[in-house]
Amino acid sequence: MKQDIFQAISDPTRRAILTLIAIQALTPNAMAEKFDMTRQAVSKHIKVLHECELIKPEHRGREIYYHFNAKKMQEFDNWLAQFRQSWEIQFNQLDELLSTIKEQKR
Amino acid sequence: MKQDIFQAISDPTRRAILTLIAIQALTPNAMAEKFDMTRQAVSKHIKVLHECELIKPEHRGREIYYHFNAKKMQEFDNWLAQFRQSWEIQFNQLDELLSTIKEQKR
DNA sequence: TATATATGCAACTTTTTAGTTGCGCAAATA
DNA sequence: TATTTGCGCAACTAAAAAGTTGCATATATA
Questions:
Q1: Are residues A25 and A58 in contact, defined by beta-carbon separation less than 8 angstroms?
Q2: Per-residue confidence at A101, pLDDT binned at 50, 70, 90?
């Protein structure tokens, strides 16, 4: 199945992996040590993240360092953009409400 | 089960619902008409979105208008913030690379 | 070259999720 | 008051996802 980034970040373990490697590239083994699960389970999460290109492998001998792909993460940001206007409006309305309450107190 | 916003937005139908009601509040029936699925299926998606407070109900007689809760969507934005620095760095590096290539062409 | 290590893939089990049908309740309307 | 309409909840089914064990492959090292 073709993975999409929304499905990829819906899993807490995968989010944790992303947070870790955003700081520093890690091998699958290094990741598995951080979580209470088998290496193979982590490996499956890596596969999901790799398929949707949120991470990129760098082969160094028999080790594979996975890097965070910031560019792909921006797709979320783009999706979120459609709602930004909404929340700015809603907060402006809140401001107005607060101003009104303030006025009434006088 | 306690829903979280990441799981909530991982479903395409739920993302479509959010996009719709960000523009205008809708009743479950109105939403169901937009999608090729039963009203009950939509109702379950509404439940998920409501439980994690991405939408808010407004009761009008026997109808319920669901509103988009922009404030909750910002949690997503906050989570994304931890990666912003990463992608700025990665893009700066890309800029440098492009500059280097440009230099070499001279 | 034999062995240890790092990793991915396949098969299987368990859990979760998406969707369905059927039902009950409350508000609107004839 | 009887009926229709809007909605949520429960039980069930089907599909997908998370995790396990076992195995194969490639690189490093004794």
A1: yes
A2: low
> Which of A67-71, B69-73, B82-86 bottoms out in mean pLDDT, i.e. has the lowest?
B82-86
Give the architecture-level CATH label for domain A5-105: Orthogonal Bundle (1.10)
Domain boundaries, chain B: 5-105
CB B50 within 8 A of CB B42: no
- Measuring from the CA of residue A62 to each C1' atom, give the nucleotide at the shortest distance: D27
Is it the case that residue A1 has pLDDT exceeding 50? no
Residue of chain B whose Cα is closest to the Cα of A84: B70
The CA distance from B16 to B46, in Å, is: 11
B1/B103 Cα distance (integer angstroms): 57
User: What's chain B's Rg over C-alpha atoms?
Assistant: 20
The Cα B73–Cα B5 span in angstroms is 8
Of B49, B69, B60, B61, nearest to B9 by C-alpha is B49
Length of chain B: 106
pTM of the model: 0.85
Contacts of A77 in chain B (CB under 8 A): 80
